Amino acid sequence: MSTYEAAGVDIEAGELAVKLMKDKVARARRPEVVDDASGFAGLFDASALLRYRRPLLASSTDGVGTKVMIAQQYGKHDTIGIDLVGMVLDDLVVVGAEPLFMTDYIACGKVVPERIAEIVGGVAEGCRLAGAALVGGETAEHPGAMGPDEYDLAGAGTGVVEASAMLGPERVTEGDVVLGLASSGVHSNGYSLVRHVLRESSLSLDTVLPELERPLGEELLEPTRIYSLDCLELARAVDVHAYAHITGGGVENNLARSLPTHLDAVLDRSSWTPPPVFGVLAGYGRIAQRDMDRTFNLGIGMAAVVAAGSADEALRVLRGRGLAAWVLGEVVGGSGQARYR
Questions:
Q1: How many beta carbons lie within 10 A of that of residue 253, not counting itself?
Q2: Alpha-carbon distance 165 to 168, whole Å?
Q3: How far apart are CA 289 and CA 186, in angstroms?
Q4: Count of CB atoms situated within 10 Å of the CB of 153
Q5: pLDDT tens readout for residues 24-47
Q6: What is the pLDDT of residues 195-204, one digit of tens each?
Q7: 122, 169, 173, 181: least buried by Cβ within 10 Å?
Q8: H/E element holding 316?
Q9: Hey, what's the torsion of the CAs at 159, 79, 75, 115, to 10 degrees?
């Protein structure tokens, strides 16, 4: 006799996972969230947007790539959801948008309630750090398509910005200053190369290197820094012209997206020292500098382009929020590139 359970889907486990995550999700809430008793939809009171003259809704979707494979291998699942929020909601703040709410999607080979609750708990914590609400999500069991210990997650977020306050390339002018905002580590990009280095070297996730002072697995699973509230506060305090979220493609490629076609950002590589984990990866993987530049954030998770007269105050604001930041470079005439001098 065929049943859904015999096919590999455990409905009761899914219900238990929802029960276990409920308290964690409740911490990621905003006053505009409206409860839907059925649980089919996430509701957000749009009357909150009436305070805007011309509100523009901003939307983003992303995942965390193969970093999930490190989490699965190391058996640590409580921070990967924070990475998801960083990848999704920090894209919104690049245009100056305040993140409002987010939904998530988890596909797995087998629902292990405690593990799903840990993952969603991380998403909820990330939303709390970003000032957004987690209004819903879905967990799907895919037996046969994925192994019992495998899972993947993705999410989508929505934010809002006043049209007249939107940030971007059109605001950037010659003489602007580029600030580097420190990353918490590798974040969520480049893990295919990270895993290649692990396969081809003597490193394991349990390796404790003197440069890191903790197991490599913990270093690689350090959650992505979430910049949303920092960037929103900075834009309220000083004359910010643009942001660039430093994700896949590295500093140069992502910063170039926030420049007009007639200007360049000239960066000073000596202005900061990348965190030790990048030296470990480069050394054990024998990775050339150009590949490091094109793959990893190298210690810069977000770049801010500010008016020259605002740079000192901008650094004061960011450091006051506990975020290391420094002058990374300047904007000069050019052809829309970010490059090292």
A1: 16
A2: 10
A3: 16
A4: 24
A5: 677 778 888 898 777 788 898 999
A6: 999 999 989 9
A7: 173
A8: helix 311-320
A9: -60
